[in-house]
Amino acid sequence: MTPGAGPEPPPSPEPAPAPGARPAAQRSARGIARPGWLEARAAMAECVVLAVACLITWWLVTHLVSRVHSLGRDDTLLGGMWAVLATIFVLRDSFGKSVAAAVSRTTATFVSFVLCLIYLVFLPFHAWALALLVGASALAVMLLGRPGDAVTAAITTAVILVVAAVSPQHAWQQPILRLADTVVGVAVGAAAAWAVMWVKRLRLTRPAGGDG
User: Fold this and answer.
1) Smallest Cα–Cα separation from 185: which of 65, 84, 66, 48?
2) Which domain holds residue 182?
3) For the chain, which terminus, N or C, has the lower number of CB atoms within 10 Å?
4) pTM, whole model, 2 decimals?
5) 75, 177 in Cβ contact below 8 A?
6) What is the pLDDT of residues 146-160, one digit of tens each?
């Protein structure tokens, strides 16, 4: 303190943490906040729902849909995997996002179904056809005003054509079977998202325990 100078101001207090801020002990070395107990419990619940939904999808395709029509055990397993992938793609952290994902997956698969079915009814698999139809699938959904679905449509087309090359005697049936598998997977994923939404609503509207 210099002579003639006024008293030194007291040190400014540290700013209070913002509401909901995580303690420094919960942050990693890179500054990324680690989830707390509530977030971890919610994540575990969502993963359990996803696992159960995938199990239901697998059972429906491999035990029920396969009884309607199946090209053999390998194709049944492929259909189960395809449907499970659709369920995983659709089931999101909110019902609105799940509906949007369901529309995206269904649109992309249907476009791929139409193009691949038209081609495989008349012609066998060929590398140039793979390239042509992949590009056509992406272009088709872009022209429909859904450029975000171009990648999904292209991947779907590539898988259908390669599977048709593996089973050339049933090539034209592959688009139909994969469309059916997609519908099952999308339906289960959307139903699971709807159920989660209603459970969350019931928990929010349920009165707190112990109130008179």
Assistant:
1) 84
2) 40-204
3) C
4) 0.76
5) yes
6) 999 999 999 999 999
